[in-house]
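seq:
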Amino acid sequence: MSLKSVGKLASRIRRNAVPAALIAAAMIAAGGASGAEMLDVVLDRATVLKMPEKVATVVIGNPLIADVSLQPGGIMVVTGKGPGITNVLALDRSGTVLLEKSVQVVGGSQDLVSVYRGAQRESYSCAPNCEKRTTLGDTTDYFTATLGQTMTRSGSAQGAAQAK
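struct:
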């Protein structure tokens, strides 16, 4: 290939690369294809988000990934339930979208220890002592027993608090 041919080829590549770069830059400036902002939430943790005024309805795309609850004063609490990406929408009474955010739930617990017995998995939270912990993907018997104990303890604590 001659030097002149290489120059023509490079010129064509530059001409075609500019429109592609402009499209990519516009998408980045617009927040991606959907325009939704990303909210990062750690698994089993809550994040507070200020809502726009006049929100009437909040919708979560996949409640297995994240959960939301509205609090007085226009505050929304987003809790990470399972790893993955979903979205949350806030609508006014007429159905107009006032807020749209993608919610990415990631595991972030450095104290989580998984014990495997063949294909069976059990999870423990080890900060500072190892305690049973319910985690998606644990063996059904282990998960159910641990969750039952947790619910019993929570119920007892609530009953004691109400008795005071």
